[in-house]
Amino acid sequence: MPSALTDRPARPLRIGAVTYLNTVPLVRGLQSLLPAAEISFDFPSRLADNLAAGRLDVALAPCIELARHPEWSIISTACIGCRGPVLSVKLLFRRPPAEVATLALDEGSRTSAVLAQILLADQFGVRPKLQLLPLASSPLDSTADAVLVIGDRAIRAPATGFCQSWDLGAEWTSATGLPFVFAVWAARPGLDEPELEPALDAARDHGLRDLESIATEQSAAMDLPRPLVLQYLRDNLNFFLDDAARRGLDLYFQRAAALGLISDQLELRFHDCHVKR
């Protein structure tokens, strides 16, 4: 029988997932695997803020936030990444990259915002002044020399109004030979949830087996060609945090630290889920 200190019902596990097409395979069937969990959806930057504020227990968080919150743990091999062109993270240029003095960053982005700065600095020695591209704004609304867009609106990025476009996944892998990881399942300091890791991995595996159905559903919902949606999910994205992806993540943190974009390098924490809610 619960004691007086523990007789309140345990609140549900609060999981936050990204509200983009790239996340659909990761959460396919997750609610049935964790029926008591509360699963919500938001933009990556907001998920990070909510996890930091204690409003979530687990979130599909931007990788750069691991450097800002070293107490967080990576709790699954499921991730959002790429091994080449990613299609949904683009840097649009009004001026040649070497001449960029101002950079507008998608308000929903954290990881890609730092990646764009790394690539500009490493390739051209450019350190532009930063501006914000609000979530409700079009890239065409910004007057910056370069504009970063991520997620579904990057897939629909305008074909006119810019002189050049970078796919940041392609730029990273071309420069480093390594995969890139945009987001991982991260948990606040410790959780007594032994079923969480296998559920997140199983949801991903289920989603990957169901890509044909997902492509059919999402192409209709988003008014995008089905072949494009299927190609994006099947060929552009990588959902496994394997050794190569971890090496890419380590290099990303090294470059960010070298440019002063994070305070220092860090040692990633895995599966540290022991503190009860």
**Rg from C-alpha positions?**
19 Å
Poorly predicted tracts of residues: 1-9, 272-277
What is the total tally of β strands?
11
| CATH topology grouping of the domain at 89-176 | D-Maltodextrin-Binding Protein, domain 2
What number is the mean pLDDT?
91
Strand content: 15-25%
**Which descriptor suits the 3D outline?**
globular
Looking across the biggest beta sheet, what order are the strands in? 2-1-3-10-4-11
How widely separated are the two ends? 18 Å
Largest sheet: 6 strands, mixed
- Report the CATH superfamily of the domain at 89-176: Periplasmic binding protein-like II
By CATH reckoning, the class of the domain at 89-176 would read Alpha Beta
Helix-strand pattern = EHHEHEHEEEHEEHEHEHHHEH
Structural class: alpha/beta
Number of contiguous helices = 11
Helix content: 25-40%
Query: Any guess at the CATH architecture of the domain at 89-176?
Result: 3-Layer(aba) Sandwich
Task: Write a short abstract of this structure.
With 277 residues, the chain is of the alpha/beta class.
Explain what the structure shows.
It is a single chain. With 277 residues, the chain is of the alpha/beta class. It has a domain at 89-176: 3-Layer(aba) Sandwich (D-Maltodextrin-Binding Protein, domain 2). It contains eleven helices and eleven strands. Strands 2-1-3-10-4-11 form a six-stranded mixed sheet. A five-stranded mixed sheet has the order 7-6-8-5-9. α9 (211-222) packs across α10.
Name a few traits of the molecule.
11 helices; 11 strands; D-Maltodextrin-Binding Protein, domain 2; five-stranded mixed sheet; alpha/beta; globular
